[in-house]
Amino acid sequence: MSARIDFNCDLGEGCGDDAAIVPCISSASIATGGHAGDTSSMREAIALCLRHGVAIGAHPSFVDREHFGRRELPLPADGVYTLVREQVGLLSALCVQAGAGLAHVKPHGALYNLAARDASVAAAVAQAVRDSGEGLHLYALAGSQLAQAGRRLGLPVAEEVFAERAYAADGSLVPRSQPGAVLERLDDALAQVRTMLRTGHVRAIDGQAVPICADTLCLHGDRPDAAAFAAALRDALRSDGLAILPPGARGPAR
Which residues does residue 8 pair with via DSSP β-bridges, in sequence order? Predict the structure, then answer.
């Protein structure tokens, strides 16, 4: 088992208890206005992260509030590039105003999943991240096209795994439209996390053991029990002797 792990959660989405979640995590991805959020919510999330020493990331998405950014939209690669640059740039400017630094970029929802499998979209997202600021980490689904695209551009890539999402045999996330896509029970999520971190594999929904790399662990902040899940996951990671730290950081651990 690795001696450290980043524990991240999505913030500023207008749902969930951000104030209760933030003390449990080491990095946060803040909604940048596409699927949720506005300048007011971004400022509030930035302030919350600063108060608790949590690394700040941008969470750009397709502009689709009606479907919470979870519907793929027909956008060419150059449109994806522009979308990511604009949304990351907005949060970055607000960070500067608050005296904070931007640490990473993680696409949201349908954009995240599309970039995970589509090389051209992955390349556009990775280029946008590289052009948005030096040293930004790219959070990408473990083993995905986006992780590969980021490394080709020399970006520091954090391969991401999910606490309470089911996996398909190819390492992708099971679509939310399918039964069993979300792990509702805390015990199931804890078991999945421990399997991934201890064995380097995840048990796919069809029973296969799929190899996986885990640099950062994500919990979705929009689930109604996210705060309780966050506290339980933090305690489990600590009890297993893991330091909870953002990528590239040197203590103190969470």
Answer: 27, 218
Distance of alpha carbon 67 from its chain centroid, rounded? 18
Burial of 206 (0-12, 13-18, 19+ CB in 10 A): exposed
Query: Which token pair is 136?
Result: 């930004």
Paired with 21 in beta bridges are none
pTM here is: 0.94
The enclosing H or E element of 39 equals helix 39-52
Q: Are strands 27-31 and 55-59 parallel, antiparallel or unpaired?
A: parallel
Residue matched to tokens 């349908």: 110
pLDDT digits (tens, 9 = 90+) for 183-224: 999 999 999 999 999 999 999 999 999 999 999 999 988 888
Query: Residue 211: which residues within 8 A CB-CB, separation 6 or more?
Result: 143, 171, 200, 201
CA distance 254 to 249: 11
Question: Look-up: residue for tokens 């950014």?
Answer: 69
- What are 130-156's pLDDT values in tens digits? 999 999 999 999 999 999 999 999 999
Helix (H, G, I), strand (E, B) or coil at 82: helix
- Confirm if 24 and 4 have CB atoms less than 8 A apart: no
